[in-house]
Design brief:
This protein has about 350 residues and is α/β, with parallel strands linked by helices. The chain has 2 domains: about 160 residues, Alpha-Beta Complex (Quinone Oxidoreductase, Chain A, domain 1); about 150 residues, 3-Layer(aba) Sandwich (Rossmann fold). The chain is built from 10 helices and 15 strands. The strands form 3 sheets. Strands 3, 4, 5, 6, 7, 14 and 15 form a 7-stranded mixed beta sheet that branches. Strand 12, helix 8 and strand 13 form a beta-alpha-beta unit. The protein is globular, with a radius of gyration of 20 Å. The two termini are about 20 Å apart.
């Protein structure tokens, strides 16, 4: 393909499970020209999050589903190569909702408005610990979970980009933190690098049995990234007055066929507990506060994080699937190009 074309991944067919070779179509389009008030971005890196699979379902959600023929929606980092916008200049690195396309002409608005990267922040960091995953962990743990020093906190999907940061924020608040992850390698990273107090390997251990041993005084805060049977099990281990922060449900695969609801929901009544869902977009006015706090903790060595970077724009569909097969280690990213 010529360098003078814009490759785009568009939705061709709604998937029923994991995306496959029929879900998206790789198209060529002309590189757009920025109009007055717009700037042209060359994409450098894409972010992958489980919620992107949910956007492919033709169902009502917190944002409209991606339509057939539309460019796949996603956050990314790019370089401004031309500008007719007073707030952006050639050479700026910007993060925003650019989608699966190599070139974007934008006014900087939309669901995820474009903003400049602070000096010294790499494209990968801007999409991981300082991106929506880090922000989700910050607000979900502090504003929804409300951990207090001395409490016991459990995080599922704990080796993922959001779960790992959420657990470390709870540690910073003085809590005892147990992570649930799949496989000995991920569990070892949680205890050795992220300094969780303990980890449960759901692939090789009985989660309920391990929680009884690790949390004899029960669980005060549960940060849920997976839903399904793990959520059902955790409901049986809640302490009086516990808080459950509902972040995601990756065990469902975000397909149209969802698992049954939790059978143990009455534990919320018995334990006088609260279960609350949230969206990071609701906290957009406070993103600056969160990024500043996260930057301080990272700089002090109090938050460790992993970035899993796949190479090549042509690999975008397969990269999305890595989130649902457990292949990724930390934040899943795809490098499209290097900065000019």
């Amino acid at each position: 393909m010529s360098e003078a074309t814009n490759r785009q991944w568009t939705l061709a067919k709604r998937p029923e499970g994991l995306v496959d070779e029929h879900t998206f179509e790789l198209r060529e389009a002309a590189i757009p020209e920025p109009a007055d008030g717009e700037f042209l971005v060359r994409l450098l890196m894409l972010s992958f999050d489980p919620t992107q699979r949910g956007w492919l379902n033709d169902v009502r959600g917190y944002v409209p589903p991606v339509q057939i023929g539309e460019v796949m929606r996603a956050s990314g980092v790019g370089e401004v190569v031309a500008s007719r916008h007073p707030g952006f200049s050639e050479g700026d690195l910007v993060v925003g909702g650019f989608g699966w396309q190599e070139w974007i002409a934008t006014d900087g608005g939309g669901l995820l408005p474009a903003r400049k990267l602070p000096p010294g922040v790499s494209p990968s960091n801007a999409l991981s610990v300082f991106g929506t995953t880090g922000l989700t962990a910050y607000f979900g743990m502090l504003d929804v979970g409300k951990p207090r020093s001395g409490e016991t906190v459990v995080v599922s999907g704990a080796a993922g980009a959001t779960g790992s940061v959420a657990g470390q924020i709870a540690k910073i608040q003085g809590c005892r933190v147990v992570g649930i992850a799949g496989g000995p390698e991920k569990c070892a990273w949680l205890t050795d690098e992220a300094h969780f107090d303990a980890a449960v390997d759901y692939k090789n251990e009985d989660v309920g049995e391990r929680l009884r041993a690790l949390c004899p005084d029960r669980v005060d805060v549960y940060f849920d990234n997976v839903g399904g049977p793990t959520l059902d099990t955790l409901l049986l281990h809640l302490a009086i007055g516990a808080r459950v922060a509902m972040c995601g449900g990756i065990s469902s695969g975000y397909g149209t066929e969802l698992p049954p609801g939790p059978r143990n929901i009455m534990q919320l009544v018995i334990q006088r507990a609260r279960m609350e869902g949230f969206l990071v977009l609701d906290f957009a006015p406070r993103f600056g506060e969160a990024i500043a706090a996260l930057a301080g903790w990272v700089g002090e060595g109090r938050i460790a994080f992993q970035e899993d970077i796949v190479e090549g724009f042509e690999n975008a569909p397969q990269t999305l699937n890595r989130l649902f097969t457990g292949a990724n280690r930390g934040k899943q990213l795809l490098r499209v190009a290097d900065r000019s």
